Amino acid sequence: MRKFKMAVCQMLVTEDKEENLAKAEKMIREAKSQGAHIAVLPEIFNCPYSRKAMVQAAETYPGETTNRLSSLAKELSMYIVGGSIAEKSHDKIYNTSFIFGPLGELLGSHRKMHLFDIDIKGKITFKESDVFEAGEKVTVVDTEFCKIGVAICFDVRFPELMRIMALKGAEVIIIPAAFNTTTGPAHWHDTIKIRAVDNQVYCIGASPARNLQSNYHAYGFSTIIDPFGKVIAATKEEETIIYGEIDLDYLEKVREELPLLKNRRKDLYTLTEL
Ligand SMILES: NC(=O)CC(=O)C(=O)O
Prior knowledge:
Layout: E1 3-10, H1 17-33, E2 38-40, H2 51-57, H3 64-76, E3 79-81, E4 85-89, E5 92-100, E6 106-111, E7 117-120, E8 124-127, E9 140-142, E10 147-150, H4 159-167, E11 170-176, H5 183-199, E12 202-206, E13 223-225, E14 231-234, E15 240-247, H6 248-257
Parallel strand pairs: 1-2, 2-3, 10-11, 11-12
Antiparallel strand pairs: 1-15, 3-5, 4-5, 5-6, 7-8, 9-10, 12-13, 13-14
Ligand LQR7VSFR is lined by residues 116, 153-154, 157, 178-180, 183.
């Protein structure tokens, strides 16, 4: 199929894990009823984005959250990009996205590679590395439609990673994320857009809705951008689902008419994955 429908569930994440899981399920069911083939959840969707909550909610794989996503993907016969959760593995915790196919099978998982350690004076200080270990591999999964790259939030700021995914054949790049009210207005829209334009991919940013009851105020503004940089779906802060059609023939046309990937000067520079 050269066209398919993507749904981004911008869900309001609360302190209640069960409520979050039930909400994610409800939104995915709604996305399916609207004809979506792929549903995407935001970064850290089963608990608040705080050190204490993430440590408490951490689960091994397979575990409660991933079992529920897998069963739902199978029941609805759809793809689910499971935002991310705190994944416990041996004595470490990772910020991990689990991606399920329509048989409920695990297609891949991405552990956030770049941890969000920032200190913008008077605005926001956050040190993800207090909780998480960094992942070490680039994630591109095969689907019946195309290859899809998955990276998490701060990862999107590293253009080399996005380019490597495109070079590995990704035509869609999905970014479960939780930008905030300082960096979001400054960088979110432009960053997602330029990753789409540079790599001539559909780029999807999936944020939680903004929850003013929580300590971390997610930016929201989930969006789907096409390979020419056009916003095909977008929202603001509130809880909602946005939908967009992914058209792989259009992507091919953009790549033919404006041949960026083909015209790289590989004789002069290279990008290696260590
Ligand atoms: N939360 C993140 O990982 C990244 C973010 O908010 C930003 O890059 O800004």
